[in-house]
Amino acid sequence: MALQVRTALAVLGGAVVVTAGAVAFAGASAAVGPSPAPIVQAAQATCVTDGSGFCTVTHGLGKVPEAVVVSANTPGPFNAFMLNTVQGSYTATTFQVRAMFTQTTPKTFGQIWFTYAAYGAATTPPTTTPRTTPPQTTPNTTTPTTPTPTTTPGGGS
What we know:
Helix content is 17%, strand content 27%.
């Protein structure tokens, strides 16, 4: 009987630990990002490199990316290459990548496959400043009045 009680307590204690861990994890995983959230376009791409290992990629972000992250996908063995974006190549519609077999040997005139994520700043709606109008002043259109003399009735005594 004592063994059953200890087992039940151990199971109960384990359940408490798991529940506490789940609650702590749930609270820790509530990610908060920048506000407003950036614009992101992620896609798979392929292109054929030129004689220096470069190729131009068309993106649909609609603005110059602030950052582009690329990851090479090698469909078969012996086709491994490193892939980087080219500094200063970002435009509102394209960016360049360069594929290299080693630090000094570009992958020339070859097909490459990769994924990318292009990040742009969020477009915030223009802020409108409340328009203040000066208070309306009405011109003085009344005619000046002259005081009417008051007379006291005269009376004799």
